[in-house]
Amino acid sequence: MKGTYNPPRLLLAATGSGAGKTTCTCAILRALQRRGLRLHSFKCGPDYIDPMFHTRVLGVPSYNLDTVLCGPAAVCDLLAAHAGGCDLSLIEGVMGLYDGRSMMEEQDSTNQLALLTGTPTVLVVDVRGMGRSLAALVEGYLRFAPNQVQGLLLSRCKPAMFPVYRELLQQHCEIPVYGYLPPVPQAVLASRHLGLVTAGEVADLQHKLDLLADEAESSIDLEGLLDLAKTGRPFIAEPLWPDLTSTAAPVRIGLAWDAAFCFFYQDNLDLLRCCGAQIVPFSPVKDKHLPKDLGGLILPGGYPEMYGRQLSHNESMLADLRQAAAEDMPIYAECGGFMYLQQAITDQDGERWPMAGILPGESSMGQRLCRFGYHQLTAKRDTLLFKAGEQVMAHEFHYADSSCNGDAFTAKKGGRSWECVAAKGQILAGYPHLHWAGAPQIAQRFVDACRAYRKNRGTTP
Fold it and tell me: Could you tell me which of 13, 116, 276, 383 has the fewest CB atoms within 10 Å of its CB?
């Protein structure tokens, strides 16, 4: 049943991408974690990489709140379910505060999420190269549209300049400044073509997090932020997926999970477990064989183009994949996983690496994002997880493209449409990413297909 929820929570927004949201979020989370507080973290929008850093800080999963992929009601449900019992839930925004799906409106922006959930917002402002103009910038953000902004954090602010900036803002903007985070050269997080490098690739990440936490303790009003987090407006939500809980014996589902394949939403995994799946991680890069007694496979997105040699040379793993496909095992693959199932991947250096060869086509890296953003998918025929005519929202974020993107779905974005997603037997694979909280039946259908596969082979889950 629906109820009213009001957990302590804050949203860190920013004036734009690259302003320091992730750094500030990690610094605050680590500083408060060292105080022994119960914390949870979220990411606004479809990003996979920032939640990895949150997870490394807290040691518990971080969740995405995406009003496009999940829908507004499901976002409220997710926030209520995961934030319960915490001293603070910290939500990291996406892009700039008002940036949404369109240049002309702020639909599905960070600000819309704050308004939807009644979450107090702190605006992160990168002050590099700014003087008096800082006040004009902040004043513009405060007055541009209705918002939940109730405080500021100054990013990349030199300690000697903070008193000057604070006085300037007090004179002109009448909004609390909760401190600043100075440049910390020893804690810079590197980037590449899809954003930050993943958290697992930063060898000294914990040291960097502690350096950021040290700065947060001395330069950010953490107590003030904790007090602000208690001033949110109650919102309406209901329990997650009450009709999907399974009491049957778990069915083993293999999840490719390593440096090459690591983009999959935590809620997707939670949904699978709710429906009766036992998730069995394996590494296509390092493991020689698939795990035993699987009912199905999930191949997430990631960076297969960066591990082309290892993936291509792991012939025993590729042979196991081909055998699983030949036996009609249910296989679901997104983006990088789709590339892995095709004939070959050509990487950034022009090297061509043969892959599983289960699906037609080859993927090659390009110089710009391809079909970037949200779009609506409509199933053209019955497939592993969708019936003909069913629709779901999806997101794409990749530089690669394939010579054969599939034709099981029609994608539509604005006035454009195109065919995508390959469906072959019990395989469903394509570049689009899906957040299953927007269509929970996906998880149930996949687990059911995995159970049926095990039953047809004369084995129990």
Answer: 116
Q: Which of 24, 26, 44, 335 is catalytic?
A: 335
Phi-psi region of 344 (alpha: psi -120 to 50; beta: other; left: phi over 0): beta
Which pLDDT score is estimated for 53? 87
CA dihedral for 423, 424, 425, 427, sign (positive or negative): negative
CA distances from 446 to 106, 329, 387, 459 (A): 35, 11, 13, 18
- Token look-up 């199905």 returns 296
Burial of 460: CB neighbours in 10 Å, binned 0-12, 13-18, 19+: exposed
pLDDT at 192: 45
Outline where 220-314 has alpha helix (H).
Answer: 222-228, 266-274, 308-313
Pinpoint the alpha helices (H) of 282-436.
Answer: 308-313, 315-326, 336-341
For residue 106, give Cα distances in angstroms to 116, 358, 387. Answer: 13, 42, 32
Dump pLDDT digits (tens) for 140-168: 999 999 999 999 999 999 999 999 999 99
pLDDT in tens, 254-305: 999 999 999 999 999 999 999 999 999 999 999 999 999 999 999 999 999 9
Q: What residues of the chain score a pLDDT lower than 50?
A: 192
The verdict on whether 450 is a catalytic residue reads no
Please give the backbone phi and psi of residue 188, each rounded to the nearest 5 degrees, phi first.
Answer: -65, 135
Q: Which two tokens stand for residue 234?
A: 């109650």
Residue where the block lists tokens 């082979």: 457
Measuring CA to CA, which residue among 120, 79, 305 is closest to residue 231?
Answer: 120
